[in-house]
Design brief:
Layout lengths: L8 E4 L5 E4 L2 E7 L1 H4 L3 H6 L7 E7 L12 H4 L6 E5 L15 H13 L3 E6 L11 H13 L2 E4 L1 H9 L3 H4 L8 H19 L17 E5 L10 E5 L2 E9 L3 E5 L4 E10 L5 E5 L5 E5 L9 E10 L3 E6 L19 E11 L2
Parallel strand pairs: 3-4, 3-5, 5-6, 6-7
Antiparallel strand pairs: 1-2, 8-17, 9-10, 10-17, 11-16, 12-15, 12-17, 13-14, 13-16
Helix pairs in contact: 4-5
């Protein structure tokens, strides 16, 4: 649980119970825009005397369908508010836009079940047709239905793009410049004040769901007899189990749960992993892509698979992929697995 000592003091209730008094705590969770040194640090610098603790977690390169598993490592139960920046991802279901709504509904329910209040901020991504964006339309409808607040900062960026000024705010059409980070933070600050002034008392940390319907389970909770390293990016820390080229890792699936995916690392030494799903065949995970000149999280999803165990094999050959910059690492291929996406009752 995050440390709260700097804003804490003890007080005694009328019944004599001793509690810890603290500032409200807000978690910003998002994708690569939240991962970068951008609007969150800028926002923290604008807080002044506000009694509030802001933390951020982020994982770039994934989409909405991975969100319902993340609660088990994000610990919503420790926060008063959770602000999601998640609509900057690629539009992956334009032929079936209803798909966007299901994970958004699920994360709203997960946050509220743990005593926190969810909200959303919508940021700009170049290349999206915002005159009719299925993802934002879906998010707006769900927020209205569930009485969830959101802040849409896309229209202003659309105007900047029309005026030829987008480069001042977004260096590549999505990730902010220093000026863009300040612009976003200045817009988010009054929205944050609105969230905090909701009449709710500062809440005490709650408890996680002991039997979640979906969860990201870290790899060190699933296999034994291995040495684990750790990886941190976007303030998200996960254990890592390394699979050398030509070798395999067997993982038992907990009883009552089905496999729905992996979280792993894309790195300069990654390659092709094969996942043996037993009777449901073997699937391939391409962990090396044109951006594998640095280390980052990635996810792979699969329809619910009820196999009792899986075996992940790291292929030894070098992928035939051209990096967008730098030279390919000629060394041994290494698979790095951080955890499994699991679902109950499938």
């Amino acid at each position: 649980m995050p440390d709260t000592a700097r804003n804490s003091s003890e007080y005694t209730s009328a019944e004599g119970a001793v509690f810890e008094q603290r500032a409200k705590r807000v978690l910003f969770f998002g994708f690569s825009v939240t991962e970068q040194p951008g609007y969150v640090p800028a926002l923290k610098g604008m807080l002044g005397e506000r009694e509030i603790e802001i933390e951020s977690r982020a994982i770039g390169g994934i989409n909405l369908c991975s969100l319902p598993y993340m609660h088990s490592v994000l610990e919503y139960e420790c926060y008063d508010h959770v602000v999601f920046e998640v609509t900057t991802c690629r539009r992956y279901a334009e032929d079936n836009p209803g798909v966007y709504g299901d994970p958004l509904k699920e994360i709203i329910d997960q946050v509220r079940a743990r005593g926190a209040e969810p909200s959303f901020i919508h940021l700009f991504r170049k290349g999206v047709d915002y005159s009719h964006d299925h993802m934002l339309d879906s998010a707006a409808a769900i927020c209205a239905e569930r009485d969830v607040r959101y802040l849409n900062l896309v229209p202003q960026m659309v105007e900047f793009e029309r005026a030829g000024l987008l480069y001042r705010f977004l260096r590549d059409g999505i990730h902010s410049t220093e000026e863009g980070a300040a612009h976003y933070a200045q817009a988010v600050l009054p929205f944050l004040d609105l969230l905090l002034d909701d009449g709710r008392d500062v809440r005490q940390p709650g408890e996680p769901d002991p039997a979640p319907s979906r969860a990201l389970v870290p790899i060190d909770k699933l296999v034994g007899g291995h040495d684990f390293s750790s990886f941190k990016r976007g303030n998200l820390v996960m254990p890592v189990c390394t699979i050398p080229g030509g070798e395999s890792l067997s993982i038992d699936i907990p009883a009552g749960y089905a496999l729905e995916g992996l979280i792993y690392l894309r790195t300069p030494q990654a390659g092709l992993m094969e996942v043996d799903l037993g009777e449901q065949g073997t699937r391939r995970v391409h962990a090396f892509d044109q951006h594998s000149y640095y280390r980052r999280y990635s996810t792979w999803t699969v329809p619910a698979c009820t196999t009792p165990s899986i075996t992940i094999t790291q292929r030894p050959e070098m992928p035939e992929v051209e990096l967008v910059k730098g030279e390919c690492d000629p060394g041994e291929r290494l698979g790095e697995v951080c955890g499994l996406f699991l679902s109950a009752g499938s």
